[in-house]
Amino acid sequence: MRRGTAGQPAGRLLLVLGLSTIVACAPGPQSGAGDPTGSLPEPAAGSLRAGTSVGRVDFLYSFENDPAEPYYPIEGLGGCAYSPDGTLIFTDRMRGKVYGLDALTRRWFEFDTPAVRPYQPVDVAVDGFKVMVLDMGNAQINRFDLTGAFLDVLVDIRRVDPVIQTSPAAFAVDRDGRMAIADATQQQVLLLDTFQNLTMRAGDPGTLPDQFAEPSGLTFLPDGSFLVADRGNRRLALYGRLGFFEGLIGGDGQPDNPFFTPMGLAADRFGNVFVADLANGQVQVLGKRLAPVLAFGREGAAASDLRAPVDVAVGPGDLLAVADRDRAAILVYRIIYQ
Questions:
Q1: Residue 88 confidence (pLDDT)
Q2: C-alpha dist (Å) from residue 226 to 53, 168, 170, 179, 199
Q3: Rounded to two decimals, what is the model's pTM?
Q4: DSSP labels, 39-52
Q5: Most buried residue, 86, 88, 130, 133, by CB count within 10 Å?
Q6: Domain coordinates of the chain in residue numbers?
Q7: Helix (H, G, I), strand (E, B) or coil at 16
Q8: pLDDT at 217 > cutoff 60
Q9: DSSP line for 56-121
Q10: What gap in Å lies between CA 161 and CA 164, rounded to an integer?
């Protein structure tokens, strides 16, 4: 299917359950009832930022795994991403599907399915007008246009280094087109240049600094450095622009470690970082100095509760999408800066 050619109006898709802060969630009426356009909420007054630090995160609405939805059933929710125009995209590894919510028509559409098996899309990123999807089953990064039409295989990860067996779990792309790929088999991160040539390997198996146990998420920061979610070691690892190890955030044995099983990562344009913590049922927010500033997702209100968040995505209008595997839902929040 192509954008706008199939799907249901967004008024049937959105479960808008009112605004809630990270402290308390106030349930509200369901959006779309009596609204044939199915329009999304207008930007909140708080989105007119007074600063660049995250003050709080307000819950807006969710896309639930409802039988009436075009993407039903969601069985293996994976990565999520926003395009610059506000199109929301998510992957379903178990069904081998990728779906997008058109930012203009508010209709869901399905991406083309490449003619390879097993097709297991686990992560997604947007670079300008192209959507890149990581296929774990074939160790490839496929490229699509914003309508979901398949274009080509951008990277065959098995050919990046034919000698070493790889199993890609996550990836990220920076503004210059460089790419970082988390390799779950070798417990390392591959750093590729803008021409998709391997320039460096970071890490190896273990618990020491500059080692990994299940690298599961990546994000580039505005200065070109990048963070790796080291799930098994309960920490994040920071690497400089050239790929050299710089430090750790959290980890076993560290007092006040905020992480249980960090996975998906996303950074905003100011350098704040959002971390999906699967086992903790929360999203941790790190400030521009990578110090924890707040957490949300376990406020006790059913509408905004997170159970097993696996990925996060920062979008235009200060939106933040969270993919929750146990709920089989995408929850959308508003970032309020101060």
A1: 98
A2: 19, 17, 13, 10, 15
A3: 0.86
A4: PPPPPPGGGS-SSS
A5: 133
A6: 10-36+46-337
A7: strand
A8: yes
A9: EEEEEEEE---TTSTTPPP-SEEEEEE-TT--EEEEETTTTEEEEE-TTT-BEEE----S-SS--E
A10: 6
